[in-house]
Inverse folding.
C-alpha cells in the first residue's frame, strides 16, 4: 500500500499486535473481544517478552500467532510487525479494549487520506479524576499530534518500516514513533474511544502518577537514558 492511498480490497487486512509480559490474569479477557475481528479476517499477533507465568499458553488459542522476543514493548511490537500480513498495523496494549467496529473505523480513516492515527481514550477504574486524565490525554494528543500507546496507534505498514519501526528503547517508544509519524503527516484522531486500565493510577495515586509521567517525559526530552527511566517507571530491565 502506498502512503497516502486507500487500501485496495486485496490489502484490507488489518494486523493487531499485542505486546505482553506476565499478563496471565487478564490476557484472555483482553483477547476474547478480538475474536469477532479475527472471524472477519483481522490478524491478531501476541508477542511475549519473556513471561514467567501462563500468559503464552492462555494466549495461544486466541491469537493467529504467538511470538517470543526480547523484552521491551518497542522490540516486541517490531517483532510482531515483522510477521504481520496486514497492510495496516494496529498496536494494542494488553490492558486496552477497542471500540466496536475498530477495523472499519481505521480503514475509513485511511480511505479518507490518513496514513496513521489513534483513538481517543477512556480510563477504566474507580479512582476519582481518571476521566479528567483521559480528557487531558485526548486534547494533548489532538493539539500536539503525538499519540501514546494507550490510545491504540495504527499506521500503514509500509510507512512504519520506512521510518524504521519503533526504536529499541526501554520507554517512550510510542512518543518517538508518533513524533516521526507526525513529521510525515498529522494523525487521524478518532473520537471513538479505546478503554484502557487505570491500574497504574490506582496503584500509585492519581497526582503522583501524573507528576511522575510528566517528569519522565521531560527528562527523556533532555536526553535521560530510557533504560534508567524505565526502571524508575517500574518496568523490568529489558533484554
Amino acid at each position: 500500500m502506498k502512503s497516502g492511498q486507500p487500501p485496495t480490497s486485496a490489502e484490507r487486512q488489518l494486523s493487531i499486535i499485542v505486546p505482553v509480559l506476565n499478563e496471565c490474569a487478564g490476557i484472555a479477557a483482553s483477547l476474547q473481544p478480538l475474536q469477532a475481528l479475527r472471524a472477519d479476517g483481522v490478524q491478531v499477533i501476541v508477542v511475549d517478552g519473556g513471561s514467567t507465568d501462563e500468559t503464552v499458553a492462555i494466549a495461544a488459542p486466541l491469537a493467529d500467532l504467538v511470538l517470543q522476543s526480547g523484552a521491551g514493548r518497542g522490540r516486541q511490537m517490531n517483532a510482531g510487525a515483522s510477521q504481520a500480513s496486514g497492510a495496516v498495523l494496529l498496536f494494542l496494549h494488553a490492558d486496552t479494549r477497542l471500540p466496536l467496529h475498530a477495523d472499519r473505523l481505521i480503514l475509513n480513516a485511511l480511505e479518507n487520506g490518513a496514513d496513521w492515527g489513534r483513538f481517543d481514550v477512556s480510563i477504566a477504574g474507580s479512582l476519582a479524576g481518571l476521566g479528567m486524565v483521559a480528557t487531558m490525554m485526548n486534547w494533548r494528543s489532538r493539539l500536539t499530534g503525538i499519540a501514546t500507546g494507550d490510545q491504540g496507534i495504527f499506521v500503514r505498514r509500509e510507512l512504519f518500516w520506512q521510518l524504521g519501526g519503533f526504536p529499541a528503547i526501554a520507554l517512550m517508544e510510542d512518543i518517538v514513533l508518533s513524533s516521526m509519524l507526525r513529521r510525515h503527516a498529522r494523525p487521524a484522531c478518532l473520537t471513538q474511544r479505546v478503554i484502557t486500565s487505570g491500574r497504574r493510577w490506582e496503584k500509585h495515586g492519581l497526582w503522583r502518577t501524573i507528576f511522575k509521567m510528566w517528569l519522565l517525559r521531560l527528562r527523556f526530552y533532555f536526553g535521560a537514558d530510557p533504560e534508567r527511566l524505565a526502571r524508575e517507571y517500574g518496568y523490568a530491565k529489558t533484554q
Q: What stands out?
A: The longest strand covers residues 188-197. Confidence is low (pLDDT under 50) at residues 7-12. The CA atoms of residues 105 and 202 lie 31 Å apart. The chain has one domain: 10-202.
